[in-house]
Amino acid sequence: MTARIIDGKAIAAELRTRVADEVARVKRDHELTPGLAVVLVGNDPASEVYVRSKHTQTQAAGMASFEHKLPADVSQDDLLALIARLNRDPLVHGILVQLPLPKSLHTETIINAIDPAKDVDGLHPNNAGRLAGGLAALSPCTPLGCIILTKSVHPSIEGMNAIVVGRSNLVGRPLVQLLLNENATVTIAHSRSRDLPKLVAQADLVYAAVGRPEMVRGDWLKPGATVIDVGINRIPVPGGKPKLVGDVAFQEALNVAGAITPVPGGVGQMTVACLLVNTLRAACAIQGLPAPAA
Ligand SMILES: NC(=O)C1=CN([C@@H]2O[C@H](COP(=O)(O)OP(=O)(O)OC[C@H]3O[C@@H](n4cnc5c(N)ncnc54)[C@H](OP(=O)(O)O)[C@@H]3O)[C@@H](O)[C@H]2O)C=CC1
Ligand SMILES: Nc1nc(=O)c2c([nH]1)NC[C@@H]1CN(c3ccc(C(=O)N[C@@H](CCC(=O)O)C(=O)O)cc3)C=[N+]21
C-alpha cells in the first residue's frame, strides 16, 4: 500500500483564495483593510524565510503587511514599546512576534503584552485559556492547519484515536485542545513518555511536533493511519544546500500510512494561510463585523 500524499500546498492555496475573496468583500462593503504586523528580532535565516513568505502572502490576499525588524540586542523595554504602539494602531489587526526570541528577552512578558484581540498567534493566556475552556478564541495557526489537513482525509474525526507527540505552547498543546473540540480521543506524548512506538501504534491520527528529524518510524504506525508531520528540520548536505525533513521518516511511513503530509509542502504551507484567516477574523471582530466565511 502507498499512502495518499496530502497536498498542503494546494489546500493552502485554496484557503488563501477564500481569504482574498472575503478581504475584497470587507474592503468594498465596510472600508476595512485587515492589517498584519510581524515582529522579527535578530536575523535567524530560517525565520527570515517565514517572515518574507508571510509578508508576500499577506499582500497577495489584499491585506496590509507591516514588518518590524529589530536587532538581536534590542532591549525588552523597546520591544514592549513597539508592541504598545501596534496595540494602539488602528491599521493593525494582527500582531505576530516570531519565536524563539533571543535569550535576553522574556518571552512570556512579551506575549502577555499583545492585545488578545490582535493575538493572531493565539499565544496570549486569554486565548490559550479560552481554547482550553472550549470557548471561541484566536487559535494558533499551525494547529488550525493540522485540523484542516486532517479533515481533507476524514471530514469527521469524532471518536478517532489521535496522538500528539510534543506539548509546546505553539503547537502540541493547542492542537490537543482543537482535537478535543472535534471529539477525538487524544493521547499527549512528550520527552518523558514511555514506549512511544507502542503509543503511536494505537493511533488512527498521528501528529509529530517534536523537532527531531525523522524520529517517528514507519514501523511504529498503525496500518492506514493518517500522519500529519509538523516538523521542519534542516539537515546539512555535504557540499550542498541543507535538506528540509520532517519529524517522520517519510519514505518508511509511505508504505504503512493511509495518508501523510510531506515536508515541505504540508503543514508549513497551512500555517501561513491560517495566519491570514486569523488576521481577517481579528479585523472583523475588532470592527464589530460578523465572523467571516473563510
Ligand atoms: N510547519 C510549521 O508551520 C511549524 C513547524 N514547527 C516545527 O515543529 C517542530 C516542533 O516545534 P515546537 O513545538 O515549537 O518545538 P518545541 O521544541 O517547543 O517542543 C518540542 C516538543 O517535543 C517533545 N520532545 C522532544 N524530544 C522528544 C522525544 N524524544 N520524544 C517525544 N517527545 C519529544 C518535547 O517534550 P518536553 O515537553 O518533554 O520537552 C516538546 O514538548 C519543530 O521541528 C519546528 O520547527 C513549529 C512551528 C510551526
Ligand atoms: N510566533 C511564531 N508563530 C509561528 O507560527 C512560528 C514562529 N513563531 N516561529 C517559527 C515557526 C515555524 N513556522 C513556519 C511557518 C511556515 C513554514 C513554511 O512555510 N514551510 C514551507 C517551506 C519553507 C522552507 O522551504 O523553508 C513548507 O513546509 O512547505 C514553516 C514553518 C512558523 N512558526
From TrEMBL:
**Per the record, GO CC terms?**
cytosol
A Pfam family in this protein? THF_DHG_CYH
- Binding residues annotated for NADP(+), in chain numbering: 166-168, 232
User: Tetrahydrofolate dehydrogenase/cyclohydrolase NAD(P)-binding domain: which residues?
Assistant: 140-284
- For whether the record's keyword set contains Oxidoreductase, the answer is yes
Q: In which pathway does it act?
A: One-carbon metabolism; tetrahydrofolate interconversion
The EC number(s) attached to this protein equal 1.5.1.5, 3.5.4.9
Q: Which InterPro entries match?
A: Aminoacid_DH-like_N_sf (IPR046346), NAD(P)-bd_dom_sf (IPR036291), THF_DH/CycHdrlase (IPR000672), THF_DH/CycHdrlase_cat_dom (IPR020630), THF_DH/CycHdrlase_CS (IPR020867), THF_DH/CycHdrlase_NAD-bd_dom (IPR020631)
Keyword annotations of the record:
Amino-acid biosynthesis, Histidine biosynthesis, Hydrolase, Methionine biosynthesis, Multifunctional enzyme, NADP, One-carbon metabolism, Oxidoreductase, Purine biosynthesis
Molecular function, one GO term = methenyltetrahydrofolate cyclohydrolase activity
Q: Which GO biological process entries does UniProt record here?
A: L-histidine biosynthetic process; methionine biosynthetic process; purine nucleotide biosynthetic process; tetrahydrofolate interconversion
Q: How does it assemble?
A: Homodimer.
Cited function: Catalyzes the oxidation of 5,10-methylenetetrahydrofolate to 5,10-methenyltetrahydrofolate and then the hydrolysis of 5,10-methenyltetrahydrofolate to 10-formyltetrahydrofolate.
Hey, which family's this protein in? Answer: Belongs to the tetrahydrofolate dehydrogenase/cyclohydrolase family.
Q: What is this protein called?
A: Bifunctional protein FolD
Originating species: Bradyrhizobium macuxiense
Q: What is the lineage of its organism?
A: Bacteria, Pseudomonadati, Pseudomonadota, Alphaproteobacteria, Hyphomicrobiales
